[in-house]
Design brief:
The structure is a single chain. The protein is mostly beta strands. It has a single domain, classed as Beta Barrel (Maltoporin, Chain A), CATH 2.40.170. It is built from 5 helices and 34 strands. The chain has helices at 5-31, 77-80, 88-92, 161-164, 432-436; strands at residues 54-55, 63-64, 72-75, 98-102, 110-114, 117-118, 122-126, 129-130, 149-156, 171-177, 186-194, 198-208, 213-224, 244-256, 261-275, 284-301, 304-320, 325-341, 346-360, 369-381, 385-396, 400-412, 417-428, 448-460, 464-486, 489-514, 517-530, 547-556, 560-569, 572-573, 583-584, 587-597, 602-609, 628-637. The protein has a 22-stranded antiparallel beta barrel. Strand 24 (448-460) and strand 25 form a beta hairpin. The protein is globular, with a radius of gyration of 24 Å. The two termini are 34 Å apart.
Length: 638
């Protein structure tokens, strides 16, 4: 039977609502007491929710979140199941401390902000390798599919600068691809459909054997007709849908040589085409993004190791419109990182070399640059005290030397209650866009620098984890583009160090597990303002809402996992001018998602976003989706 496009849309919506109905019915049946004990699952069979997770990003050595000083959050593989058919930015924009905007659908130009810092001030790593555009400094997370990700670790604040160097002034996001841990061999296929004629299909295979070899391969294709990105009256407006399609592949291979040596490699690659409105028909951009790495890890003593790693990442965009342009970024990185167990605590040390290059049809005189670095750290994680000290030296071929450091400590008041504080010095080297954009390049730009203070108190038990974090940051030498006019006529401009800012706020997170139920939420209060010149309390920085919060409730059984969430985003300004025309009004979104295991091999996932069909924008002049859905089936052969 063939369906028209409108009939197909109605049919897909019916399937989606039916899927959610299946979740609800099975949830109710599961919650009803059985007449016999034969249907009662043991504790070992129930899904486990681990509140105290192990992270490596915050200290560069495996550390429990309950011992980390800076605010840290982990999005694990269980939570990532809620985001089938979506991208990394869809995951992050729902996390505490994040705000974002998008110029249309899920694949369109976007940017994210974390606790007041711009995306270009936040370092993004994939399996330890830098992943970003050297043009504007930000990472294209809107093109990174969530189904290729195993987990995401988020480190808030500037402590990452003294661990990872420039671009980590506002924090670090590390994405780990699938395949690092393969428990058993399996093969899976996935097919999904969603709103706006979205279709997803993919396959994955994982192999492991007794010789210590593990291999993971996955590939997927995602396409959608999209929505009309711009509103009437907006520059570049076209009355058409702006579609998107992408092909994605990931690979991970590890080999256990013996009990001391481990070798491996991994790669993630995405190729996509995205239509956009630019005043002409059929304007589009082709993009290639990816990261690959290989490593050799030597565990020479219990708790001590040395890891040699080489990585390469790319970010290439080629636009076809009335203003065609090409930006081709490449980064090569080699590092030697060690950790050594001390009588008390752990030392972390390493050296790195990074080569960055950009080829562009827009910039004429772009110079490659090299960064050579060395760092040293100390981590103490005990039942009474936690401490972290880091010192890093970076030698940038364009900007000379920079030294950053951080100091932090925490005291366990009792086994469940902990309080602590930290200070970190951060910096960001100007991106190539900062230097070469505009009518005149500015090679004399100074790096942005920051002073960051953070204090927290947290309460952890077997049932819940609650943390309140307060922070106060001062940022100097902020880089802004300064335009020049002759009357009303634009005659040129370039980037300059013209601004200072103060960012302060409070972040509350609370996550609970009570039998089969999970619930919790987050609330962020933030005041991010320009403090340049004589006015120490100037305009609000763009895209930084003063209040933001999310609450969620979920129900988990061995075969059922369903979750509902409500997110509120306060008013914010889209530009530093704080003009009324640039005010984005507050909005709230209600979403529901779930997974249901139909049989041991077949799993259904479904998500319904913006259930109330809220009309809202994240950027003036650009549309957002109303009620939208996605549902998929995955079959596993074990």
């Amino acid at each position: 039977m063939l369906l028209s496009r409108s009939s197909s849309s109605i049919y897909l919506r019916y399937c989606m609502l039916s899927a959610l109905g299946v979740f609800a019915v099975n949830g109710a049946m599961a919650a009803t007491p059985a007449n016999t004990d034969s249907n009662v699952a043991s504790d070992d069979e129930l899904p486990q929710v681990e509140l105290d997770k192990i992270v490596v990003t915050a200290t560069r050595t495996p550390t429990r979140t309950s011992n980390v000083i800076a605010q840290t959050r982990v999005v694990d593989s269980e939570e990532l199941k809620y985001y089938q058919g979506q991208t990394a930015i869809d995951v992050l924009k729902r996390q505490p401390g994040f705000s974002y905007y998008s110029n249309g659908g899920m694949d369109k130009k976007s940017n994210f902000y974390m606790r007041g810092y711009d995306g270009k001030q936040i370092l993004v790593l994939i399996d330890g390798i830098r992943y970003s555009s050297l043009n504007d400094g930000s990472a294209t997370l809107n093109l990174l599919p969530a189904d290729q990700i195993d987990r995401i670790e988020i480190l808030y604040g500037a402590s990452g600068s003294s661990i990872y160097g420039a671009d980590a002034m506002g924090g670090v996001i590390q994405i780990f691809t699938k395949g690092a841990k393969v428990d058993r061999s399996n093969f899976s296929v996935t097919a999904g459909v969603g709103s706006n004629d979205q279709y997803l299909y993919g396959a994955g295979a994982q192999f492991s054997n007794a010789t210590g070899t593990s291999l993971s391969i996955s590939a997927s294709h995602n396409e959608t007709n999209g929505i009309n990105a711009t509103k009437p009256g907006t520059y570049g407006y076209n009355k058409d849908d702006d579609g998107f399609d992408s092909d994605n592949v990931s690979l991970a291979l590890t080999q256990r040589i013996n009990d001391k040596w481990l070798a491996g490699t991994s790669a993630l690659y995405s190729k996509s085409t995205s239509e956009f409105d630019s005043g002409v028909q059929d304007a589009y951009s082709d993009q290639e993004n990816g990261s690959a790495q290989a490593f050799l890890d030597w565990r020479y003593l219990p708790g001590s190791s040395l890891k040699l790693q080489y990585g390469h990442s790319i970010d290439k965009i080629d636009t076809s419109s009335e203003n065609s342009s090409v930006y081709d970024s490449k980064q090569d990185q080699v590092s030697l990182v060690g950790q050594h167990k001390l009588p008390i605590g752990q030392s972390v040390y390493g050296i790195e070399h990074l080569k960055q290059s950009l080829n562009s049809t827009v910039y004429e005189d772009v110079n490659d640059r090299d960064v050579t670095s060395a760092f040293l750290g100390y981590v103490l994680a005990s039942n009474q005290f936690d401490a972290q000290v880091n010192l890093r030296f970076d030698d940038n071929s364009q900007y000379g030397n920079e030294t950053t450091y951080n100091l932090g400590g925490a005291y366990h008041i009792n086994p469940n209650l902990r309080a602590g504080a930290s200070y970190a010095k951060g910096f960001r080297a100007p991106s190539f866009y900062d230097i070469y954009s505009g009518t005149e390049s500015n090679v004399n730009l100074n790096p942005e620098t920051s002073d960051n203070y953070e204090a927290f108190i947290e309460y952890d038990t077997a049932l819940q984890s609650t943390r309140v974090t307060g922070y106060h940051n001062t940022v100097d030498n902020l880089i802004n583009f300064v335009a020049r006019y002759n009357g009303n006529q634009y005659i040129g401009g370039n980037s300059q160090n013209v601004a200072e800012a103060k960012i302060k706020g409070i972040s509350l997170t609370s996550d609970w597990v009570l039998n089969d139920y999970i619930f919790g939420g987050s609330y962020d209060y933030q005041k991010a303002k320009d403090s340049s010149g004589d006015n120490d309390d100037g305009n609000f920085l763009p895209i930084r809402p003063k209040n933001k919060g999310l609450v969620y409730v979920g129900y988990r059984l061995p075969s059922l996992d369903i979750r509902a969430e409500y997110q509120y985003v306060d008013d914010y300004y889209y530009s530093i001018s704080n003009a009324d025309s640039q005010l984005v009004e507050n909005y709230g979104l209600l979403n529901i998602s779930g997974n249901y295991q139909l049989n041991p091999n077949l799993t259904m996932t479904a998500r319904l976003n913006n259930i109330t069909n809220k009309k809202y924008v994240t950027a003036p002049g650009y549309n957002t989706e109303g009620t939208n859905f996605f549902t998929s089936l995955t079959y596993n052969w074990f």
